Amino acid sequence: MDAQLLGWIPNAITAARLASVPVLAWLAFHGMDSAFTALLIPALASDVVDGWLARKLQAVSPLGTTLDSIADICLMLVIVYAIWPLHPQVYLEHGWVIISVLILWVFAHAASFFRYGRLASFHTQLIRAGIFAFSLFALVLFLFGFVPWMLYLAGGLCALGAVEHFALLMLLPEWTPNLHGGFPEALRRRRAAGKHP
Predict the structure, then answer these.
(1) What distance in Å separates the CA atoms of residue 66 and residue 178, rounded to the nearest whole number?
(2) Both 60 and 102 in a single domain?
(3) Looking at the structure, do residues 75 and 157 belong to the same domain, yes or no?
């Protein structure tokens, strides 16, 4: 079948991830740890699958990029919430890590709206590494138990991703989604355009 005709599939997968968020929140609120984890696994896997399919089918679009960012944010937020009812000791002993990173990213997304009127959707390798590390930490937490170093690694990567996000906002006057190369790629683009950082 023609790849163009299948271009709707990545967005459908992303939409399914977004639709899972209220269900995950409900399961966490009611303390249904096993059911939460069973739904979380495919939700996290869909974040890899939809991006890969979009590139494979050459179906990357501004709508898909924005939808993916919204779904990622909502899924990460529901995980941050679910940790409290399902594993409260993480917040009681190490909550400052999660809260600090959360505050950083609230400011980062607010700055994106101020700069571009929308989510930046940079999707850089560093930001994706932070999301992957936090997702892996969450999976291990909900499947096996709390591993502190994984939280600190994820927190560090997410904080670095937020710093990179702010730097990109300063470097790029126009909305530039899917900037996988991050800060170095933004500098190259500015030099190619005849601008100085």
Answers:
(1) 10
(2) no
(3) no
Whether 188 and 129 share a structural domain: yes
Cα–Cα nearest to 86, from 15, 163, 30: 30
Torsion of CA 96, 102, 106, 108, to 10 degrees: 100
- How many helical (H) and strand (E) elements, i.e. helices and strands, does the chain have? 7, 0
Residues 101 and 65 grouped into a single domain: no
Q: What is the per-residue pLDDT across 96-120, written as a single tens digit (0 to 9) for each? A: 999 999 999 999 999 999 999 999 9
Q: What pTM did the predictor assign?
A: 0.92
Give yes or no for a contact between 27 and 78, defined as CB atoms under 8 angstroms apart.
no
Positions in the chain short of pLDDT 50: 1
Q: Which 3 state secondary structure label does DSSP give 175?
A: coil
Domain count, the chain: 2
Whether 133 and 63 map to the same domain: the answer is no
Cα gap 13→72, rounded to integer Å: 12
The parent domain of residue 81 ranges over: 1-86
